[in-house]
Structure formats: C-alpha cells, structure tokens
Amino acid sequence: MTHDTGLIFLGPPGAGKGTQAKLLAEAIDVPHIAIGDILREAIADQTPIGKEFQQYVDRGELVPDRLILDLINDRIQQPDAKKGWILDGFPRNVKQALFLEELLAKLDRSYTIYVVNLEVPEQVLMERLLERGRKDDTPETLSRRLQVHKEATEPVIDFYRDRNKLYSIDGDRSQEEVTKSIEQIVTPAQSGI
Ligand code: ADP
User: Fold this and answer.
1) pLDDT in tens, 67-112
2) In CATH, which of 2.30.40.10, 3.10.129.10, 3.40.50.300, 3.30.70.1660 is domain 2-187?
3) What SS3 class is residue 68?
4) Ligand 1 close to Cβ of residue 68 (< 6 A)
5) Rounded-to-integer distance, Cα 165 and Cα 19, Å
6) 60 Cβ closer than 6 Å to some ligand 1 atom
7) Which of 46, 112, 159, 193 is 20 to 30 A away from residue 136, measured at CA?
8) Pocket of ligand 1, candidates 20, 33, 41, 63: which has the most ligand atoms within 8 Å of its Cβ, to mutate?
9) Phi then psi dihedrals of residue 95, to 5 deg
10) Which residues does the annotation mark as catalytic?
C-alpha cells in the first residue's frame, strides 16, 4: 500500500482556493482538480451535461450531487492522480464529503488528507469577486453563492475538524504569505517521501 497526499481546499467563493491550489499543485507535482473549471469547460462546449450544469451554475446553486459524484469518481482514479491530488471546489456539502471518504476507503491506497480552510471576511470576498468579474460573478449570483456556502459548505468544515484533518488559514493576506502558511502544513509530509 502506498502513502499518498490528498489536499482539499475549503473556503468561500473568492477566498483564493484556485490561486493557492494551482501554486501548490505545481510545487508538489500533483494534479489540481478544480470542479468549477471542469463544469465551466463542459458549459463552454455546450455538451448535453454542460447545458444541465449551466442551469445551476448561472443561478449560484450547487449542481446536484448525482451529476457531480461520478465526475469525482472518474477524475480521482485517472493515472495522473495516482500519487495524490488537490481538490478545489469539492466537497461542497456533507453528503459529498461522505462520498469522498467512502471512495477513498474503497481504493487500495493510504492517504494523508489535509484540509486547508481559507478564511476571508465577507466584505473582502465581495470586493474580490466583483473585481474578478467571471460570468457567474454578478451581485445576485454572488450573494446566493455566499449563502449556499454558509448553509451547505460550512458544515463540511466541522466534518473535517471532527476528524482532525482541518487546518484553518488566514486568507486575508498577500498571496505569498498565504502560500507560505499552506506550505508549512504540507511540507513535513512531503519531505518524508
Ligand atoms: P467559487 O468557489 O469561486 O464559487 P467555483 O469555480 O469553485 O467557484 O464554482 C463555481 C460554481 O460551480 C458553483 O457556484 C456551483 O454552481 C458549481 N460547483 C462547483 N463545485 C461544485 C460541487 N462540488 N457541487 C456542486 N456544484 C458545484
């Protein structure tokens, strides 16, 4: 059995998950699996499933679990994810967290899981997101996404805290400072490889 590193990035929209996850993925050479990017790609291609995703993403709602879980199952078992992965945007509710826990238990591997929770005040999030201006970053969609985060995703923070896997980080600092804090969490495991 091998020991792999699984990183999960939590935090509200605009917390900097994508930026930090991408940097870390390059540093430790594991794939950055960004669910939002996967969904947006399917939407841009207007595939049948992409059209279905779009109805939810455009409203700031979560895409139903039945459409997301298969996607994760497939992606995590791709050859490039054999040594580990960084998940960005998953799990977003407790059901998804339970699904991931069961999936990892089924695979014949031993994972060290780190859950990085980026904390940023709501006021700062709004400013960042309106500046970013992605298609689903309108004021209406944004406030719905922040609300969905509170209702559905914050319980996931407790889920991982209960399992002693949670590392909370102050995300309201420069990108470099946040990166340094995250590296300090994962470096001991990395240097042991
Ligand atoms: P952000 O974290 O900045 O809101 P993402 O790119 O991670 O942006 O997600 C964009 C949208 O994609 C979400 O608002 C939601 O509609 C959908 N989505 C992303 N991840 C999930 C997920 N795990 N389950 C359901 N829907 C998701």
Assistant:
1) 999 999 999 999 999 889 999 999 999 999 999 999 999 987 888 9
2) 3.40.50.300
3) helix
4) yes
5) 21
6) yes
7) 159
8) 63
9) -60, -40
10) 17, 92, 132, 134, 145
**The two three-digit tokens of residue 108, written as one number:** 């014949």
Q: pTM above 0.90?
A: yes
CA distance 84 to 53: 27
User: Counting runs of H as helices and runs of E as strands, what totals does the chain give?
Assistant: 9, 5
Pair of tokens at residue 31: 């794939």
pLDDT in tens, 106-129: 987 888 999 999 999 999 999 999
Give per-residue burial for 50-61: e unless 16+ CB within 10 Å, then b. beebbeebeebe
Mutate to test the pocket of ligand 1, among 57, 96, 125, 151 (most ligand atoms within 8 A of CB): 57
